[in-house]
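Hey L., structure's done. Input below.
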Amino acid sequence: MFGLVVRFTCEDQASAEAFDRLVAATVGKIRDNEPGTLVYAVNRVEGEPLQRVFYELYRDRAAFEAHEAQEHTKKFLDEREQYLSATEVDWLTLQTGKGTAG
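Output:
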């Protein structure tokens, strides 16, 4: 398995609302068209109204690369920056856990 956690910080409340709309338009397409994307969870951060945390888990590196090649993902990547003041990415290597092969 291959995964990452991304923390996005939006510029302001209006940007956060626009970012959330962009995310909503993207997630349904990921759900419907990406069998190798095992988990794509978008979270708000309690007490931090401008932050969003994505947890993404893919079957393997090839599934992640297929995700990145999708038109809906490219659109998200192209449009997201206008709403953000910061992006932090942590790449994950599965060690062990419930509901995993590890």
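The chain has one domain: 2-92. The beta strands are 2-10, 37-45, 48-58, 84-92.

-- N.
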